[in-house]
Design a protein that fits this description.
Structural class: mainly alpha
Distance between the termini: 52 Å
Strand content: under 5%
Low-confidence stretches: none
Helix content: 40-55%
Number of helices: 3
Order of helices and strands: HHH
Radius of gyration: 21 Å
Amino acid sequence: MDWPKELLEIFDDPLLADVRPKPKAPTPDDRMAQKLLEVNKWVAEYGREPSSMAHGLKEKLAAASLKSLRVKANDSLRQYDEYHLLG
């Protein structure tokens, strides 16, 4: 399909240079995968699972995320589970 010349000129307008489509909102599965990747990063850095009994807030948040992920885990998350944390 050939676009009309007038339409192509509109798209080439410098005022539209920064116009981009709105990014797609992340799905619940996307958010869970992101949380699991964050927990994986924590495990890679410290060499163990995060503990909810720790003193640091970052570790407590990672432990809470992991606990929640274990309850909600589905097959789509298994591909991100580098350290077999989901059981």
